[in-house]
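hey
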């Protein structure tokens, strides 16, 4: 179990105060193909949007920083985008980066779970498996190690002991065949301070890349408050599945005994990635300090989705970013960002 088993830790919610945001630059041509240049433009646009609210630490492969920095030397942003070189395989820091927690004294630590490229879907991934440790070392943050595979996109937390995930992903045999449900819950308690896990049956049916990450279907936005995807088109492949998720949330109380306040996001939209039609998930937003950076498709439904989120989070500035290429690659804004909470609680 490791030397820190007696330590009490807690994963803060995404809306807690951030020191900055971790991202990584895309260059994996096997994934992006002829979309690589478009992906790099969209990553840069997302980074600049986030940098209006908080600093961005952009990791890029050794020898490539000089090519990446010009993307951020034009129009200034409120905060910096710092480009650093570290070995990496891919560019989805929500999943390969560290997950930050606080100990009982309020000191920031870094949970370093194993990463296996979403069930060995991409090779190589050894550098991404080491990325969390390298980032923690650079930041001077003590690591907490786990032998369990876990991607940050597979979980959403309220910062008060409750975590929501999907059975479709976390119980998939390509992640942790040695861990059963109870074993996964115990490790989430040990590493993240989780007291209650809410298991949704489904992620997105077409989300074969991540096997149904929760950040495509549900997201905490405040203690006891969850935004859920609920497509209103009966022909949508997730129409019935998301209603099954909703039923679970409506019947569940969180770790503090609260019934959940549920915000429904009915809109779905498809964007164009250089001739390819791709579904852009509005749920895959990121919450920087004072903001909400949300992926949109460049479709009429975008305005309605942004309005739902703005009404649900009136204290935040909602910034839409057109990201069909991220959707083509298998993700969205949340997938390529990872919050770095403030040094002390």
């Amino acid at each position: 179990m490791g030397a820190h088993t007696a330590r009490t830790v807690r994963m803060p919610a995404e809306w807690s105060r951030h020191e900055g945001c971790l991202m990584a630059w895309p260059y994996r041509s096997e994934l992006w193909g002829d979309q690589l240049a478009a992906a790099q433009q969209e990553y840069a646009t997302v980074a600049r949007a986030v940098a209006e609210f908080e600093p961005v630490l952009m990791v890029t492969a050794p020898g490539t920083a000089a090519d990446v920095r010009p993307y951020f030397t034009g129009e200034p942003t409120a905060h910096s985008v710092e480009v650093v070189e570290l070995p990496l395989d891919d560019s989805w820091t929500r999943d390969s980066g560290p997950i930050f927690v606080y100990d009982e004294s309020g000191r920031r630590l870094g949970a370093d779970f194993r990463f296996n490229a979403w069930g060995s879907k991409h090779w190589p991934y050894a550098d991404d498996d080491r990325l969390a440790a390298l980032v923690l070392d650079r930041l001077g943050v003590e690591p907490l190690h786990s032998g369990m595979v876990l991607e940050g996109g597979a979980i959403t937390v309220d910062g008060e002991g409750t975590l929501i995930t999907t059975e479709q992903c976390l119980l998939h045999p390509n992640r942790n065949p040695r861990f059963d449900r109870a074993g996964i819950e115990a490790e989430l308690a040990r590493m993240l301070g989780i007291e209650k896990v809410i298991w949704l049956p489904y992620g997105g049916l077409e989300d074969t890349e991540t096997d149904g990450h929760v950040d495509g279907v549900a997201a905490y936005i405040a203690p006891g408050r969850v935004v859920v995807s609920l497509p209103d088109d009966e022909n949508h492949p997730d129409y019935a599945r998301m209603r099954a998720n909703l039923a679970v949330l409506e019947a569940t109380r969180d770790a503090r005994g609260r019934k959940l306040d549920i915000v429904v996001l009915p809109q779905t939209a498809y964007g164009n990635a250089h001739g390819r039609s791709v579904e852009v998930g509005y749920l895959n937003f990121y919450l920087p300090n004072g903001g909400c950076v949300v992926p949109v498709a460049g479709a009429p439904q975008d305005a309605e989705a942004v309005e739902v989120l703005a009404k649900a989070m009136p204290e935040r500035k909602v910034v839409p970013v057109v990201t069909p290429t991220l959707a083509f690659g298998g993700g969205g804004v949340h997938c390529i960002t990872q919050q770095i909470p403030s040094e002390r609680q």
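The chain is about 25% helix and 25% strand. The chain has one domain: 9-341.
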